[in-house]
């Protein structure tokens, strides 16, 4: 059972979890947009943290070639269908996550005809600072038919989850572009936050960031307090919210992200501009087109193409 303090932290994110130094959160954890369920059979490549120590190198918890068990420390409810999960490991080690990358999780879903264990596998993006030692945090939306998210919802303190990674998505480097625009839908905010936090905590990074964030309702905006705090304290971050079902006192945008929102809210097409996109399949099709079947970037379509951006100016998570 999460403590009262832990529950409070889940709602007011500029502060940290109980027992940790005060710090802002990293990126929100979420399913990387558009990746289907993958099923893996029982693998001998399961290790514990102490098996992946490298002599002379900083100790890291992740291993890209082996499944590592991480123990659940605590949980908290963030919204009506979203939960925060903290996993612990050797306090002397770092997770070993790069910007921008995700981890892969797996959970058993039964056995095949030969009695071998089958797994459902899903990627998630930790919200905690990559430099944090001894723990990482995942923010996960629980879907009624979501095999992995339903598994997470049943976890209790002390249970373990198998993790592999990191899996690099976009290789970010400071000042790689003058202006980065972002379009996120729902839990697609997570890789955006990972990049945003990397930019804002680096005083030598002068990148300007503009975010368009779409959700069903104001109550579905994950970690809005966190986002507002970052925007209020960093002049190089601008955020515009839009929702399908606005409340009576809602002061943001209404409806799907439109071409007008893109033109007014994002940097214009330029060699010094990069637009990042992540969200559910329907939104991806509307904004940029989805990735190709082989998970490469695929053809650029949708609003971004109409607005004059090229494939070199857009990255789909």
TrEMBL record:
Class of this enzyme: oxidoreductase
Main location: mitochondrion
Keyword Repeat: no
Family statement drawn from the similarity comment of this UniProt entry: Belongs to the flavoprotein pyridine nucleotide cytochrome reductase family.
Protein name listed in UniProt: NADH-cytochrome b5 reductase
Top-level division of the source organism's lineage: Eukaryota
SUPFAM superfamilies: Ferredoxin reductase-like, C-terminal NADP-linked domain, Riboflavin synthase domain-like
EC number(s) per entry: 1.6.2.2
Gene3D superfamilies xref list: Nucleotide-binding domain of ferredoxin-NADP reductase (FNR) module, Translation factors
Subcellular location: Mitochondrion
Alphabetical UniProt keywords: FAD, Flavoprotein, Mitochondrion, NAD, Oxidoreductase
Co-factor(s): FAD
Keyword RNA-binding on entry: no
Binding site for FAD: 122-124, 139, 141, 147-149, 190
GO molecular function, one term: cytochrome-b5 reductase activity, acting on NADH
Substrates-to-products reaction catalysed: 2 Fe(III)-[cytochrome b5] + NADH = 2 Fe(II)-[cytochrome b5] + NAD(+) + H(+)
A cellular-component GO term for this protein: mitochondrion
Domain FAD-binding FR-type: from-to ranges: 65-173
PANTHER family noted in UniProt: NADH-CYTOCHROME B5 REDUCTASE (PTHR19370), NADH-CYTOCHROME B5 REDUCTASE 2 (PTHR19370:SF171)
């Amino acid at each position: 059972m999460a403590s009262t303090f832990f529950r409070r932290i889940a709602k007011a994110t500029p502060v940290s979890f109980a027992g940790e130094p005060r710090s802002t959160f990293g990126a929100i954890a979420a399913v990387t947009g558009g990746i289907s369920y993958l099923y893996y059979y029982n693998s001998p490549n399961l290790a514990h943290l102490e098996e992946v120590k490298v002599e002379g190198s900083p100790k890291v918890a992740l291993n890209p070639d082996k499944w590592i068990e991480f123990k659940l420390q605590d949980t908290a409810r963030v919204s009506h269908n979203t939960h925060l999960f903290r996993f612990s490991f050797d306090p002397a080690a770092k997770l070993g996550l790069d910007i921008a990358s995700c981890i892969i999780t797996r959970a058993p879903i039964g056995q095949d005809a030969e009695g071998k264990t089958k797994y459902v596998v899903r990627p998630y993006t930790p919200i905690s600072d990559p430099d944090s030692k001894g723990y990482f945090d995942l923010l996960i939306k629980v879907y009624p038919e979501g095999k992995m998210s339903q598994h997470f919802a049943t976890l209790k303190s002390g249970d373990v989850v198998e993790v592999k990674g990191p899996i690099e998505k976009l290789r970010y480097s400071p000042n790689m572009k003058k202006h980065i625009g972002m379009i996120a839908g729902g839990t697609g905010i997570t890789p955006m936050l990972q990049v945003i936090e990397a930019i804002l905590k680096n005083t030598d990074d002068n990148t300007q960031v503009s975010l368009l964030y779409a959700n069903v309702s104001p109550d579905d905006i994950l970690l809005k307090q966190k986002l507002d705090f970052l925007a209020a304290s960093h002049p190089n971050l601008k955020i515009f919210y839009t929702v399908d079902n606005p409340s009576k006192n809602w002061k943001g945008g209404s409806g799907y992200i439109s071409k007008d929102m893109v033109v007014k809210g994002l940097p214009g097409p330029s060699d010094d501009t990069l637009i990042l996109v992540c969200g559910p399949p329907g939104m991806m099709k509307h904004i940029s087109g989805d990735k190709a079947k082989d998970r490469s970037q695929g053809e650029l379509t949708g609003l971004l193409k109409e607005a004059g951006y090229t494939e070199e100016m857009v990255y789909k998570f």
